[in-house]
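All the exercises in this workshop are built on plain-text protein records. A record pairs a protein's sequence with a compact description of its fold. Read left to right, the backbone structure tokens trace the chain's path through space. Once this layout is familiar, the rest of the handout is easier to follow. Here is such a record, shown just as it appears in the course material:
>
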Amino acid sequence: MKRITTPFLDDIINSLYAGEQVTLSGTIYTGRDAAHKRMVGLLDDNLPLPFDLRGEVIYYAGPCPAPPGRVIGSVGPTTSSRMDVYTPRLMQEGLRVMIGKGTRSDEVIDAIRRYGGVYLSAVGGAGAFYSQCVRKAEIAAFADLGPEAVYKLEVQDMPLLVAIDNKGDSIYGLLR
């Protein structure tokens, strides 16, 4: 299993291939539908984003509140296709890595190829497990969105699968 860390540089992305198992450590951001819609709205209005997307990772998740003594509650992946309408625009602004579950649209696969990104797959239903990989969590943007706020997470050894690599090769190829 390959160990990868953020920030994501081209050499890391270029070394990944569909079907490869990885563990991820470093800083990632969460974001679901409402946060994505708001980010694209800011860009459409020529306003700055609350954080720089260049080379960053967005984990399609909405963390649950932290129980006593824990950094974060359950933080499992949500269905990625719900973000597909926003993803090419965010990739145009520098987003390179997405984490979620499920297949992606042809437009997202084309954007992954065009902008040199990668889509990593997390296991659905494993939110409690993934919370154990989180070392630090804080709201980074859009606190008014509650559970859909953008969180900045520090993760260690988060196990993932390369679902779509920067050449557009996909573990879902047989499903499409």
Remarks:
- DSSP finds five helices and seven strands in the chain.
- Residues 2-166 form a domain with the fumarase fold (CATH 3.20.130.10).
